[in-house]
Design goal:
It contains nine helices and nine strands.
Length: 298
């Protein structure tokens, strides 16, 4: 598996406003997500633990699902949710605030949803190669290739983004997929107290989730026990508090970008040099780790 990622960020950015026909959708399969975030990366329980422990809990966001036809379901805030034993099923991913990015060969920066850890200037991941780098990201698009499913790389190529998937042979050491029988309590979680989610589900559905809303699910993921519905209450409560109180460069940057952002896909109105200075002020000066640049990768 060999990829050419420079100037792309197709799997890190919501590029649907650039080419709605070519870009994919998370609203596929039997369980549509409650939100409309593009390519949300499901984190493992251990990854959530590490991120919360590192004071980066404000980078996390939950995803709940609408039920498939034969799924168990629970109704909260007027919405049917996929459930197990009366508990809403969810995953935890990384937030995707609007950022001024120029991916996939665009001529100038535009406001597009982008991973919280994506440097908008280099289009590189700020935690690539770090212990916090998600397993799903490091193995992408291996599972797609193994299942003969379309990859983001191929979508970008179809949209005129140049050659991206240079070798389509999946790696031999792919981890287990995020969804499957082994996923319960490891990447797929069940919220133990659905009665506490009144109002929370509506805010998640409508894009108005609070820090406390997001922290509830981060805590439940950390407290979960792989392979079961069991939740260690003390660990859940401690992680929830830590995630709610997080005030990292990620949270600061998300607030700043959200306040500045125009409509999805709208031109930023800055040339790249001015955009780069703004990005450094919003992210790097707030403590974001740097990226080496693409020349260093060669």
């Amino acid at each position: 598996m060999e990829l050419r990622c420079e100037g792309c960020a197709g799997c890190c950015v919501d590029w649907r406003p650039l080419d709605p026909a070519a870009a994919g959708s998370d609203r596929t399969g039997p369980r549509p997500p409650l939100d409309d975030t593009y390519d949300l990366v499901p984190l493992t329980r251990d990854e959530v633990v590490d991120i919360v422990d590192d004071g980066l809990g404000d980078a996390l966001v939950p995803r709940l699902f609408e039920p498939a036809e034969r799924d168990e379901r629970v109704r909260i805030d007027g919405t049917d949710l996929a459930a197990i034993d009366g508990r809403p099923v969810f995953v935890v991913g990384l937030r995707k605030p609007p950022k001024p990015v120029a991916p996939i060969g665009t001529d100038e920066p535009r406001w597009l949803g982008a991973c919280a850890f994506l440097d908008p200037t280099t289009l590189q991941c700020r935690i690539h190669g770090d212990d916090r780098y998600p397993r799903t990201c490091s193995s992408y698009p291996g599972h797609n290739l193994e299942l003969d499913a379309e990859t983001e790389c191929e979508r970008v190529e179809a949209a005129g983004g140049g050659d991206r998937l240079l070798d389509d042979e999946p790696a031999d050491d792919l981890p287990a997929p995020a969804f499957g029988p082994q996923a319960l309590g490891a990447t797929v979680f069940a919220y133990p107290d659905p009665e506490d989610l009144d109002g929370v589900v509506a805010r998640l559905r409508d894009g108005g989730a609070t820090a406390d809303d997001r922290a509830r699910f981060a805590g439940a993921a950390v407290g979960s026990r792989p392979g079961s519905l069991s939740v260690t209450r003390d660990r859940m409560a401690e992680a929830r508090d830590d995630a709610r109180e997080a005030d990292s460069w990620v949270g600061s940057a998300i607030r700043e970008w959200t306040e500045r952002a125009g409509a999805d896909g709208e031109r930023v109105g800055l040339d790249r040099d001015a955009r780069d200075r703004l990005a450094r002020a919003v992210e790097d000066d707030a403590g974001a780790p740097g990226t080496p640049g693409w020349d260093a990768e060669r």
